[in-house]
Design a protein that fits this description.
By secondary structure, the protein is an all-alpha fold. About 60% of the residues lie in helices and about 0% in strands.
Length: about 170
């Protein structure tokens, strides 16, 4: 399958939030239609409801991990541990390159926004925020860690994704 990293970025640049961009780009692999994926991920953007807590791209990775490896038996401690390990591994990989998984820290904001209303998406908005890079990094981790069996690693794929911000 061809990389979807740039597709995730395009979804974000259409005006969807960070969680929606990453989650909706890959949800179809699990049989979830795009509209439903966008609805499910919508409250998780901007650090969960614009509270600037866990980055929406990290939340998207966790949701996708749940679709792939989530447990459904409350007594299955091994399965619970396995999904938590997957989420921690991906979150740690994100933090290793980005410095944090907390939205406000990534944005350099001291506290949550007073208003829940999102900012207008303008050229200035995209230029002043690291969100495009964060969307690409999360998409890269989804493809290279969680869903690697779906994405064939050819020389062209690696070269394309180096430029897409996957390796930074």
């Amino acid at each position: 399958m061809k990389s979807r990293i740039n597709e995730a970025l395009s979804v974000f640049c259409e005006g969807y939030n960070c969680c929606q961009a990453v989650f909706a780009t890959y949800a179809d692999i699990f049989g979830i239609e795009k509209e439903l994926a966008l609805k499910l991920a919508s409250p998780m953007g901007a650090g969960i409801g614009r509270m600037r807590e866990v980055c929406g791209t990290v939340s998207a990775m966790a949701l996708l991990a749940g679709l792939k490896e989530g447990n459904t038996d409350p007594k299955d401690e091994k399965a619970k541990t396995a999904i938590y390990e997957t989420v921690r591994r991906m979150s740690d990989a994100f933090k290793d390159t980005q410095g944090s998984i907390v939205c406000r820290e990534l944005l350099g904001i001291l506290s949550r926004e007073k208003s829940a209303a999102p900012e207008a998406r303008t050229d200035e908005y995209y230029a002043k925020r690291p969100c495009c890079k964060l969307v690409k990094r999360a998409a890269y981790l989804v493809e290279h860690d969680l869903l690697q069996e779906y994405f064939v690693k050819t020389a062209d794929y690696v070269e394309e994704n180096w430029e897409a911000g996957g390796i930074s």
